[in-house]
Design a protein that fits this description.
Pfam families: Acetyltransf_3. Keywords: Transferase. This protein is an alpha+beta fold. The protein has a single domain, classed as Gcn5-related N-acetyltransferase (GNAT) (Aminopeptidase, 3-Layer(aba) Sandwich). The chain is built from 4 helices and 8 strands. β5 (86-93), α3 and β6 form a beta-alpha-beta unit. α3 (102-116) packs across α4. The radius of gyration is 15 Å and the shape is globular. 34% of the residues are buried.
Length: 172
């Protein structure tokens, strides 16, 4: 996939790789699980919905990625360009992979990629206010609160001016 390094986007504990049609059975299983989608729309998805949205069919408008730990898939991430140097990201981990620092690690790796490879200088996320685990993870990855919209927090990451030419630090 263009703009993704060979071997994926690497964090300290995670690697993000492009989601493809071959990942459909795994993703369809995840997105049909009420616990997995609790903070991702709140309703289980059909295989057809997952196929249409999460296996790379919407590229380049939406880039779909699997989050791996030690070659095992543990989550899903996506990024969406919304302007010339900015966009939004979403990330969801399997419940068994939560609470281990994998979310912030994957987010930092993706931020580094978006900043150093794609030139983004603003990245946003919008976790549900009630999803305290996600809010903490986004803070750990370097995001700050900028507002609210209904039941969602609006958070953004901007590289510090002195670091505009530097990659996102591995630890936040």
């Amino acid at each position: 996939m263009p703009n993704t390094p060979e071997g994926g986007i690497k964090g300290e504990m995670t690697v993000l790789i492009p989601a493809t049609e071959e990942h459909l059975p795994l993703l369809a299983d995840w997105f049909s699980d009420p616990e997995f989608v609790r903070h991702w729309g709140g309703r289980p998805l059909t295989r057809e919905e997952v196929s249409a949205k999460y296996v790379g069919r919407r590229r380049p408008a939406v880039v779909s990625l699997l989050v791996l730990r030690a070659a095992a898939a543990v989550g899903y991430a996506q990024y969406v360009p919304t302007g010339p140097r900015e966009g939004g990201i979403d990330l969801v981990l399997n419940p068994h992979a939560q609470g281990q620092g994998l979310g912030p690690d994957a987010a930092r790796a993706l931020l580094r990629h978006l900043h150093t490879v794609l030139g983004w200088d603003r990245v946003t996320v919008d976790p549900e206010t009630s999803n305290l685990r996600a809010v903490r993870a986004w803070h750990k990855a370097g995001f700050r609160l900028v507002g609210t919209q209904g039941s969602r927090l609006l958070m953004e990451y901007r590289p510090p001016p002195a670091a505009m030419a530097e990659p996102v630090p591995a630890r936040g």
